[in-house]
Amino acid sequence: MNRFNKVPFSCHAAIRPLSLLTLLATGWIVSCAVNVNKESAGREKISLNEEWAFYRYDITERADELTYDIRPEIADAGEYLVADARPTEAVEAGSSAAVLKPWILPTANPFIADPVDRYTRPEGEAPGKDFPFVQPDFDDSGWKRVHLPHDWAIEGPFYEGEHPLVGGGMGRLPVQGVAWYRKKLEITPEERDKSIFLEVEGAMSYAMVWLNGTLVGGWPYGYNTWQLDLTPYIRYGQENQLAIRLDNPNHSSRWYPGAGIYRNVWLIKTHPVHVGQWGTYVTTREVSASSATVDMEVNVDNDSGSDVTVVVATEIYELDSTGEKGKRSIAFFPDTEITLEAGESSKEKLTTVVKNPRLWGPKPTQTPHLYQAITTLKQNGRVIDHFETTFGIRELQFNSEQGVLVNGEVIKLQGVNQHHDLGALGAAFNRRAAERQLELLQEMGCNAIRMAHNPPAPELLELTDRMGFLVVNEIFDSWERKKTPHDFHLIFPEWAEADTRSFVRRDRNHPSVIMWSYGNEVGEQYTDEEGAALAERLERILHEEDPTRPTTLSMNYAKPDMPFARVAGVIGLNYQGEGIRQEPEFEGTDRIRTVPQYDRFHAAFPGKVIFGSEVASSFSSRGIYLFPVTEKITSPVRDGQGGDSENAQVSAYELYAVDFGSSPDKVFMMQDKHPFVAGGFVWTGWDHLGEPTPYYSSRSSYCGIIDLAGFKKDRFYLYQSRWRPELPMVHILPHWNWPGREGKVMPVHLFTSGDEAELFLNDRSLGRKKKGQFEYRLRWDDVRYEPGELKAIAYKNGERWAEETIETTDAPFSLLMQADRSRIAADGRDLAFVTLQVVDQKGRPMPDASVPLHFTIEGPGEIVATDNGNAADMTPFHSSTRETFSGQALAIVRGGAGKPGSITITATSPGLKESKFMLTTE
Ligand code: GAL
Q1: What pTM does this model have?
Q2: Which residues are catalytic?
Q3: pLDDT in tens, 436-483
Q4: What letter would DSSP give residue 657?
Q5: What Å distances lie between residue 661 and 256, 577, 682, 708, CA to CA?
Q6: Which residue has a Cα nearest atom 3 of ligand 1?
Q7: pLDDT tens string 604-645
Q8: Does 614 contact ligand 1 (Cβ within 6 A)?
Q9: Does ligand 1 come within 6 angstroms of the Cβ of 658?
């Protein structure tokens, strides 16, 4: 049954999708609305992040019955182990009158195009009115006090053992269940004539909001941003009680979803006549070095009870690299007078020209220049609203032979997939933690991020704009067909349109966003014309909301001759380009087995760009090397073949991958053999929480190039050698501490941006080797281990290029701490990432040391979390006691808000010299 059809779905395309050729011919640009956290004439955006009362029902308790909807029983609570399993049909849940869904659905209305399809709030009193938690006088003093962004599950403890309540897929953390957040709002009598909105950037999940005992609305999908108009429910001049209920289902995700209000929350106060939610949309045309035409749509809402006339004025300013606005505007749109009836909204279309534009472009070859459009509404000469829109001017072209061009330059996508969590900090968004992720990726030469598989925090896109990354912004991992019993398929029929439209409206001004992806490996790949028809509906919605960017769908199954493959503008292939399960051992498997597809798709869709939306999915545990080492260039993981299921670790020779994936070497080869491929996105940049394939006994993944703690695996250097060919570097693996393996075979591999290298063991040359065609590493597979010194000298075009030496160390002697920064802001948010290494008496890091650690802190700060990057480590993240893994550990330190001063972190380990690290917060 097509559940989608149960709810009328309207897509009368107001704007026809542009063909790729049109896009090519016109070139096109994008920009963005970024709101401000400051008061400005007529509009205030106030952070509501501080001081919430929080209560989560204990799992032994029965939660209240204020449920959004009935969910299907789970027949098979087993793990959903294999990522490329075929998604299955939805299960009927049965229905009940006692659900709150009818009151929540109207929140979707602004994002439903056809008025016929919009929802009507049921008559009468909304449910929950008498429930204690929503009452203003309910005593919540016994509840926990929390600050947002907040992830209630990250503290753990982990569910360990064989039948965990929450499985490895969702990170073995207590994400499940119902929880409440309460906060009081002061609204003065003078604000009686204001419109007041609540904006939630993300709450996991099924959020429902009460104000002063009345159910206002909500939003089920945990990754989208949404707004509620609180105005009708406000008590002016009194305390107002806000209560938010979340209900986060188990078995709802293939990865760690987080739990709670894990992004920012704002209170927005405006004049009743104001720029609407995400009410500006900037695009550009005819971009050249001398000029660019900038088009802008401004949406004005008249929420006052009377007809009004206002003047809309917009000026454009340059932003410098720190985000500081230039003193004088550099262009303006013509002032426009509009008259709006009470309750009416209008959309103004304006055009201007920017002379000598400073273009936005990806690093390192271009500079991500930004502009800001400042829109004011004036009534009788008085400014009544002020709205800021950050955008970039750039020309983006998609060419089926060359790939992606930005401002005329071909930019190969050197991309990674990133899930939303921030490792030991969980899903609670933190700007500095996200910035650190991007900084390390940029150091590797990465220039593009695919947001797997959901809209990111708005601040992440501010970072990608500013730091010059290209972004594939993605919304769904499932549509009607399910991957896990409680995933998005349950709400797809009612919410797909609203989620899709709000996703695009929020993000369409960001210059870093170059494509909309609206499905990852969805089950509709398998349902022929029915699946394609559903894809076409979503495709139309995306083009209505943003005709300037192409769309993509990630396909791990659909082949060029299947209906699904024809729909999206850009072909995104997951693993199919390289071929899936081609090794003889997979003969006769009932899983996906596919010969390499790049040529086939290129032949079938000669006008479309093709890229690897997921490539590699190779695995490794940092610093763990297992023997023997495969002689092939890629291999699936098995015990004795790169895998150790007992200790749940994968060999870091960087040759092992998920059954359907490939090593980086094979991916590079396939990309080089198919130069029309626009590039690819590695699965993944950083390890993420949950989805610990191949060992679901663990808590976090093995596929990252960088581990969960932010430590580089060897793979980092393999990618860097390819992505930054101009950077002289050579990297040796494995480490050289192998007591007991003397005389045994110990393959040595080098990753270098050079083309040739000579390897020396204790000053004896083991030979000079040159990379052959389609070879990306140099390997000496028959070295026999002897302690001492291993040295590599790399050459490029015959010239000496780079050198590295590693040595066998002595016994552990002391601890050494360093940090990404020694000065951080005392704002209660900024973080220092303090890394610890175990060193020998000569100060040499010990890559194989496992020692117990204890961290303490003095001064105005706290250790928020610790980690070591070991996917199998079940020590809770907030513990200040932890073992080092492959010689390293991490402590994440936050300075107290408004308490500048000096912080000392001390690390101790029995028998070793302690280490101290000083940090200043200011
Ligand atoms: C893909 C999937 C990703 C992830 C990956 C793991 O099939 O799209 O979300 O599960 O496999 O290897």
Answers
A1: 0.95
A2: 521, 614
A3: 999 999 999 999 999 999 999 999 999 999 999 999 999 999 999 999
A4: E
A5: 21, 10, 10, 21
A6: 83
A7: 999 999 999 999 999 999 999 999 999 999 999 999 999 999
A8: yes
A9: yes
